[in-house]
Amino acid sequence: MYHSGSQVTLVNPQPPVELVCSKNSVLNTLLLRDGKPYYSISTLDKSVSCTRITDLRTQELLVTIQRRWVASDTITFTQRYGGEKLKLKEWLRNSESQETDLPSSIWHVSTGNGNFMWKSDAQTRLALYPEGSLDRPLAWIKAGASASFFIQRDAESFIDEILPGFVILEQEMREKEKRMGLFYSEPTINPRRVFF
User: Fold this and answer.
1) In the chain, what are the domains?
2) What's 138's DSSP letter?
3) For the chain, which end, N or C, has fewer CB atoms within 10 Å of the first or last residue's CB respectively?
4) Is the pTM of the predicted complex or chain greater than 0.90?
């Protein structure tokens, strides 16, 4: 279970770990730490139906995300949940806004380490917090020439449960931004299905 370091006053807290995407893609990229490849995110097919996250230091497959046309999308954690496939919509749930009936910018995720929420944030683009506590993000994204993903050192022990949320939500945000750009520049409809 994750325990926040906020209960202890730190004089010189360690800086977060920065993972930089080697390409402007979250579906096919390396996550670099201090210039060295630590994680690989790979999507091998053009239909974007299977994305794998691998720890390059150990060559261990951490997570497989399967997107499907008919059946539910699934996520499989190699070292968690007994390696069983989980329904993606049950693992990562989008909150519904009570006022507008439109999806909000908060996604809830239940993990073996506790309950967390991803939240869209103007300063950091997307941030992960312990559920019910917006004091200190555990992980966040800063967009730029190449996206940077930051994670607090006390959350590194369950990075395999954090990275899939980053991949799924960042790709979803990019798809929405792309569609909005296409919508305003061309009066055509993009037939590509978004799987998230």
Assistant:
1) 15-185 (2.40.160)
2) S
3) N
4) no
| pLDDT surpasses 60 at 144 | yes
DSSP three-state, residue 173:
helix
Instruction: Please enumerate, as own/partner, the contacts of 50-56 that have beta carbons within 8 Å and a separation of 24 or more.
Output: 51/27, 51/167, 53/160, 53/163, 53/164, 53/167, 55/160, 56/30
Task: Report which DSSP code applies to 153.
Answer: G
- Please name the residue that has the structure tokens 């944030």: 121
- Dmax over CA atoms of the chain, in Å, equals 56
Closest residue by Cα to residue 40 from 13, 59, 65, 68: 59
* Tens digits of residue pLDDT in 118-128: 988 666 788 99
Helix H segments across the chain? Answer: 88-91, 159-185
